[in-house]
Amino acid sequence: MGGSAPLRRALIALSMLLIGAEGLRQIAQGDGCSQPGMQCTIKNNSCLDFNWFRRYSWTPTAPSNMVVTTGIGQNELGRTVVRLHINWTVSVDASILELQGVEITVVERSTQVTRCIQYQFNNTFPSQRNPNGQPWQFYYNNFEVIPGHTYIVTVQHLPRQGGDNSKVQEFTVPWCDEGDMIQTDTCCDLGFCWFPNITIKHQEENLIVEFSSRWNAKEYGVQVKVRDSPDNTFIHVILQEGPPIQRVQVTFPHIGGHIDKECVYNISQLRF
Ligand SMILES: *[C@@H]1O[C@H](CO)[C@@H](O)[C@H](O)[C@H]1NC(C)=O
Ligand SMILES: *[C@@H]1O[C@H](CO)[C@@H](O)[C@H](O)[C@H]1NC(C)=O
Ligand SMILES: *[C@@H]1O[C@H](CO)[C@@H](O)[C@H](O)[C@H]1NC(C)=O
Ligand SMILES: *[C@@H]1O[C@H](CO)[C@@H](O)[C@H](O)[C@H]1NC(C)=O
Ligand SMILES: *[C@@H]1O[C@H](CO)[C@@H](O)[C@H](O)[C@H]1NC(C)=O
Q1: Contact 11, 227 (CB under 8 A)
Q2: Where is the signal peptide (predicted)?
Q3: For the whole model, what pTM was predicted?
Q4: What pLDDT does 160 receive?
């Protein structure tokens, strides 16, 4: 053996196909919507409640203010997820006497999946301000959402007034690389806590690529491209049942040589 062969660089791309996270859903938990002085009941899944399409002579005005943010919390299954926090304020005016309920609708823009709940007030508002002298404020934070997705949130006071007594806001949930999002199980489902720890070995003319699988993914693609060479090989791996996380070994024949790696990994979703 003479001097060492020149080092060649290879680009190793690893991809994973994931089922992805569930879309917009309502978390089945919560503490009702009553406040001192107001008895309120939550009615679930009631986007099409024809009672409210009747004509009423008197209708409440729109909420005076609405704030949509997100928070990280647990859903009823104990998973750490992203929730929409929807807060709104009732206008301080005499039309509060007509306010019988509120419909909160969220539409996921890319899929048009819609979820809706209603607050129904069992008594009329005793005064234009709450017992603390503040405008009445309500909130709902049981919609579970997906990072990076855009939602259209509508808070509609009931009875309706030709669509004029609602407030609408579009809100985009921060992506998994922002703030604390990475701590959610949802971002893990989207591949953000996969550390494949790629290693390579040479065995005669073969190049052996090893990586750690992810607990909920069974399909991977491994691609090796040697710099300055037109060769580009791709191997599709489908794991059989085994331990939740394992080292997976893929052999690329006849690539050999002294290859130094540069790794890229790429996560793809099959569907949301
Ligand atoms: C609506 O759902 C919440 C939690 O999702 C639950 O606590 C409540 O009992 C449900 N109400 C009705 C009327 O089904
Ligand atoms: C929304 O209302 C809740 C309950 O009153 C409050 O804790 C929270 O700080 C409010 N959020 C915003 C952004 O105003
Ligand atoms: C409040 O009103 C809702 C809807 O009108 C009704 O289903 C519920 O039984 C009422 N609750 C009480 C405590 O009266
Ligand atoms: C990566 O994998 C190699 C080979 O299995 C192992 O020796 C190393 O400790 C792993 N590194 C990390 C950070 O897990
Ligand atoms: C990531 O992998 C998927 C599936 O193997 C492929 O379709 C996509 O083009 C890759 N993206 C990049 C940026 O390499």
Answers
A1: yes
A2: 1-23
A3: 0.75
A4: 87
